Amino acid sequence: MSSSRTALGTISPSRAVSFIRLELSGWTALEVSWMVFCVAAVLGISLWLKDSAIGIIAAITGIMYTLIAGKGKCSCYLFGIVNTIGYGLVSYHAKLLGETMLNWGYYLPMMFIGLIFWSKRLDEKAEIVKTALTWTGRAITVVLSILGIALYAIVLAKLKDPQPILDSTTTILSITAMVLTVKRCIEQWLLWTIVNATSIILWLNAYLDGYGSIATLLYWCVALANGIIFFIKWRKEIRQ
Question: Which three-class secondary structure string do you get for the chain?
Answer without folding.
Answer: CHHHHHHHHCCCHHHHHHHHHHHHCCCCHHHHHHHHHHHHHHHHHHHHCCCCHHHHHHHHHHHHHHHHHHHCCCCHHHHHHHHHHHHHHHHHHCCCHHHHHHHHHHHHHHHHHHHHHHHCCECCCCCECCECCCHHHHHHHHHHHHHHHHHHHHHHHHCCCCCHHHHHHHHHHHHHHHHHHHCCECCHHHHHHHHHHHHHHHHHHHHHCCCCCHHHHHHHHHHHHHHHHHHHHHHHHHHC
